[in-house]
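Hey forum,

I'm writing up a methods section and want to include a predicted complex as supplementary material. The small molecule is 2-acetamido-2-deoxy-beta-D-glucopyranose. I've pasted the protein sequence and the SMILES. Can someone with a working setup run it? I'll credit the forum in the acknowledgements.
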Amino acid sequence: MKLRSTLFSAALLTALPAVSALSKITRSGRFLYDDNGERFFIKGIAYQQQGQVTVTGAANPLGEPTTFVDNLADGAGCSRDLPNLQKLGANAIRAYSVDSTLDHDSCMNALSGAGIYVILDLTLPLNGSIDTTQPTWSTSLLNEYINTIDVFSKYDNVLAYNVGNEVLTASATSAAPFIKAAARDIKAYLTKIGSSALVGYADIDGPSAFRDAVAEYLACDPSNKNDGSTSIDLFGLNNYEWCGDAPTSTYNSINTEFENYNIVAYFSEYGSETCNPGVRPWTEVATLFAEPMAGVWSGGLAFSYFNATANNEQFGMVTLSSDNSTATTNQDFANLVAQYASLTALPNNPTQAAAPSATYTACPSEGTAFEASTTLPPTPNTDACECLSSALACQFVAKGDFTDVIGTLTGQVCSFLAQNGGSCADISANGTSGVYGTVSSCDPVTRLSYEFTQYYEATGRLSTSCDFAGNATLSTSSSVASSVSDAVSSCLTSPSAVFTPSASSGAPAASSPSGGSSSGSSSGGGSSGSGSGKGSGAVAVRVGVLTSVLVGVVGGVALVLA
Ligand SMILES: *[C@@H]1O[C@H](CO)[C@@H](O)[C@H](O)[C@H]1NC(C)=O
Ligand SMILES: *[C@@H]1O[C@H](CO)[C@@H](O)[C@H](O)[C@H]1NC(C)=O
Ligand SMILES: *[C@@H]1O[C@H](CO)[C@@H](O)[C@H](O)[C@H]1NC(C)=O
Ligand SMILES: *[C@@H]1O[C@H](CO)[C@@H](O)[C@H](O)[C@H]1NC(C)=O
Ligand SMILES: *[C@@H]1O[C@H](CO)[C@@H](O)[C@H](O)[C@H]1NC(C)=O
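Reply by user p_vandermeer:
Happy to help. Structure tokens for the complex are below, copy them as they are.
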């Protein structure tokens, strides 16, 4: 039909493997299926170079990478690595952070041509993710996620977008409502733009009570109407419990735990270094992709193609030449190749026709061990927050990389407000009580200007109280409201209304000074962790990007940038 086809002889065409559009992967209940209705198992590898630690101290308490390498924007690197990924027989890779201002065509198209899907985390390091202990789900994060989706929605091989990686930990679960809200809003956005990509979350492993509660909560329906709109599609577990040539029974308890799960589960990372540093036998592959595991899990992603260090363990299966032109694979890689190659016929059970449809059960009850309310934060509303921002009398003067200063200043103004009979309740969000201040889902700059303006009013509009050592200034805009409460009532008429985020309202107006020193250097790739062997129950794996930054705790109100 197309002119180009005539360049191929009929003989050549018949000799070519059947190249067709990539199969669309869909979810039926708790399983994935391809266009032919066959079970789809994620058989892949994490693919992202580790970033660097450029921020230390309070802003990076865990010392995690704060920059990232966007490997999906590196066409030459992808061409270099594609033969290796094909040798592996990978049908999926996972990338942990991308820069939505870069061009990903070359790599994404090459991967698609090779039948390789991408599971893409939408998060960035530092303030580019929902924070573990001081979470918010704000316009700036929603816009960050949407900007990435807008860039990747044209590719046919995005299998899923992850809304978080290891945000929740066994000792900190109050961020769960924010993750569920992110899943809800991203799901709604994908539906709106006609994307069939799935929505996922990658969970750190831990005690079974924690693991189960997270899995159940992210897939439950708080309204008890069997409604999946706040559920993720794909629960990823970063699991490192298999050690060396472990017995098949290693996975017995995890398999039992997920036996009756209602959505897709898979290993979003696996491959412990503990027993066989550097040269893993990868014998878990044969167990993970066969019954009974195959009836519960949909495969997994080995960690990791590139080098990554965590807990003093070295992951990684290639060494790059100094000019990055070649990637030399190691024995660890060869072992994984052999294990993946030994998977010939994967179980196709149940068939798509026989797959039970999804049910969404009641949410786990909140308790001291799982501190997540079933009242979710509202959908961040960029239009409302921009309206509010322009109506505020006292404005934060944002300069350069303001991440640290905004935290310090928020702490200061909340302390001053408390001394003047006010509070920062309006900008605070609490996932345990399910109480979300009316301004809490606005971006950090708007939240700070809001508190500056409250303080300005609380001090009788003294111009000296809108200064903060040159960080605040009185607005000269004609849209300034006569009071904070007027600004709120004219801009935030329905602050808890849930609406579908749109691409246009998703475009951040003032908050994207790209080209500044932060662009291109902003985020973190897959760092990594390792399992502590089996048996102890408390597996400490810390993999992936740093979440965000605690910026201050004032009067019991914790403040964070996100
Ligand atoms: C990856 O790690 C191995 C083992 O530590 C090391 O030999 C190799 O040089 C590293 N490769 C790169 C590209 O850093
Ligand atoms: C190799 O790739 C890394 C990561 O993209 C990059 O930081 C480095 O500058 C590259 N080195 C060369 C010589 O191109
Ligand atoms: C993170 O902070 C930088 C400024 O330091 C800002 O430009 C960016 O919009 C923030 N990101 C989010 C998601 O809030
Ligand atoms: C959040 O709410 C819970 C339950 O009401 C409360 O115990 C906790 O102190 C609150 N957290 C903050 C930071 O205010
Ligand atoms: C802004 O606030 C920060 C933190 O309190 C302070 O270090 C700085 O001097 C202030 N002034 C300006 C103009 O940045």
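Some notes you might quote in the supplement: The CA atoms of residues 193 and 210 lie 34 Å apart. The mean pLDDT is 86.
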